[in-house]
Amino acid sequence: MVKIKEFNIRDHKEKIVVFIGFSIVILAINFLFYKPYVQWSEKNQQVEKFVLDIRKEKTIGEAVEKRYKRLEEELEKEQERVELFKNRVVESSFLNIVKFEEYISEMSQKNLLLLDTIGRVERVQETDKIYIPYVVSGDIGKILEFMEEIEEANEKKVSLSETGLTLEIKEEKARLICKFSANVLEKKIVTEVESEELIPLSRVVRERVKEIKILNYNNKKYIILKKVSGQSEIFFEGKIVIFQGKKYEIITKNSEVFIKLTE
């Protein structure tokens, strides 16, 4: 073993130079090649990961977009179905109570039946559904035909099977006690004659009008207003009424009753 005090640099000059040169080469390789390569490799991996993330997000985005379009198409179809259903309901509904009662009256007359009693209107809240109690009498066979025609009619959906009914039979005569149900829109029929000067008489009456009848008696037309409350009010053509501080004359036109401004 060589002692430090006896160490002679000249004797180890070549080894020292080789060692220093080798160290420089190692450091140069480390700083010039290895470190840049490691950094490049890390950056390349980051870029590849970023590209993969982009592709993944793009795939997810495309899937979400397709799902959104599909949901949008389904929503449009559902809206079309709802709109179609609404139209069908409207088509099978009655414009108002008067039209409903006229329909039941026509069906009963067709089968030679009598409407003995018409009850108060029962409404289902937040819907157009109504129930009206009826008592119908006549021949048992005609009543059964009447019931069948009501249930199977295509133009208007009227039902008497949603609630209980009673069929009383005495020999060949019978009496049907039931509730008819239907959708009633409570819309007014707008006519061409309605204007600022011609106003429906029903607007003058404070209570809701159920039915208006016109009767000819002694060359004079009388108008009978039946209210939903069950009360009635009688007018005649030519009578002067006050509406919103102005004078109006009661007139009839096209089987309808109006008030006409006179001043």
What can you see in these coordinates?
- It is built from three helices and twelve strands.
- With 263 residues, the chain is α+β, with helices and mostly antiparallel strands.
Mean pLDDT: 77
Class inferred from helices and paired strands: alpha+beta
Strand content: 25-35%
Poorly predicted runs are 189-195
Largest sheet: 5 strands, antiparallel
Shape: elongated
Percent helix, as a range, is: 40-55%
Oligomer: single chain
Number of strands: 12
Radius of gyration: 46 Å
Alpha plus pi helix count: 3
Measure the end-to-end span: 141 Å
Order of helices and strands: HHEEEHEEEEEEEEE
Which features would summarize this protein structure in a list?
alpha+beta; 4-stranded antiparallel beta sheet; 29% strand; single chain; 5-stranded antiparallel beta sheet; elongated; 263 residues; 3 helices
Please give the structural blueprint:
Layout: H1 13-91, H2 97-110, E1 114-118, E2 122-123, E3 129-139, H3 140-152, E4 166-170, E5 173-183, E6 198-200, E7 209-217, E8 220-227, E9 232-236, E10 240-243, E11 246-253, E12 256-261
